[in-house]
């Protein structure tokens, strides 16, 4: 069974998807990590981000693997390096290109073959796993998402002004929404969960309830 969880940056998808997978005894796939790894590889190779052909040609030589929790680039674990601002800022140059999306979508489908899996991203229910039995769109208001990120960064000893976080987040939301292929939107058959005012445990419980109702074959989910 495939469970897709899509939604905007900062909606808490990653931790909810990881926890849901664990509780269900499923595997977990963070598709943003694959986009990030491809971007890191391109930065390291000093690919010209203004040149689509160069990006696409380069991407064909990149070896990305997912080991269930970590992302590997040509065998090297790059799970930490992919979370840096230069990577986050450059992802759009790759994520906007249909050829790159097709390649990464193919990798995602190959990873999921024959598995029970919770996959997390932007286009999982709409493009990559259109036949998934359970599709969830996890969202929250921009203010709430920025507030959570602010608290997270402060707890890590790296506080940033809330307005700055909100501004960067709005820009990413816009980039993710207007993308011609793989744009951020709920699938028509997705269950939308708006997590404003909910604790992460409450969100997790709602996700698990949604999956279990579908597992029971309940058509009223
Ligand atoms: O989920 P995360 O924030 O790590 O994703 C980073 C970026 O990768 C997103 O902002 C989006 O541009 C891109 N992405 C995508 N499709 C996915 C997952 C991520 O375009 N399935």
Written overview of the protein:
- With 221 residues, this protein is of the alpha/beta class.
- The chain has 2 domains: 1-26 and 117-221, Rossmann fold (3-Layer(aba) Sandwich), CATH 3.40.50; 31-115, Rossmann fold (3-Layer(aba) Sandwich).
- 51% of the residues lie in helices and 14% in strands.
- The protein contains 9 helices and 8 strands.
- The strands form 2 sheets. The protein has a 5-stranded parallel beta sheet with strand order 2-6-1-7-8, with helices on both faces. It has a 3-stranded antiparallel beta sheet with strand order 3-4-5, covered by helices on one side.
- Helix 2 packs across helix 4.
- The longest helix is centred in the last third of the chain and has 17 residues, at 162-178.
- The protein is globular and about 50 Å long.
- The chain starts with a strand and ends in a 6-residue tail after the last helix.
- The mean pLDDT is 95.
- The structure holds cytidine-5'-monophosphate.
- Cytidine-5'-monophosphate (C5P) binds next to helix 2, helix 4 and helix 8.
């Amino acid at each position: 069974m495939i469970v897709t969880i899509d939604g905007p940056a900062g909606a808490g998808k990653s931790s909810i998807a990881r926890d849901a997978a664990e509780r269900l005894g499923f595997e977990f796939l963070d598709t943003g990590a694959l986009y990030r790894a491809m971007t890191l590889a391109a930065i390291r190779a000093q690919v010209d981000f203004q040149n689509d052909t160069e990006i696409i040609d380069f991407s064909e030589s990149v070896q990305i693997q997912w080991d269930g929790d970590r992302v590997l680039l040509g065998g090297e674990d790059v799970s930490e390096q992919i979370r840096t601002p230069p990577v986050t800022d450059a992802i759009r140059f790759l994520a906007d290109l249909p050829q790159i999306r097709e390649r990464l979508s193919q990798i995602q489908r190959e990873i999921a073959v024959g598995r029970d899996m919770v996959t997390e991203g932007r286009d999982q229910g709409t493009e990559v796993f259109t036949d998934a039995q359970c599709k969830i769109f996890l969202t929250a208001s921009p203010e709430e998402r920025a507030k959570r990120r602010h608290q997270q960064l402060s707890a890590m000893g790296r506080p940033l002004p809330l307005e700055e976080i909100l501004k960067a987040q709005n820009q990413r939301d816009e980039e993710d929404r207007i993308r011609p292929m793989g744009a951020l939107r709920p699938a028509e058959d997705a269950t939308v969960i708006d997590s404003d005012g909910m604790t992460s445990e409450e969100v997790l419980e709602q996700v698990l309830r949604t999956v279990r109702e579908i597992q029971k074959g309940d058509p009223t989910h």
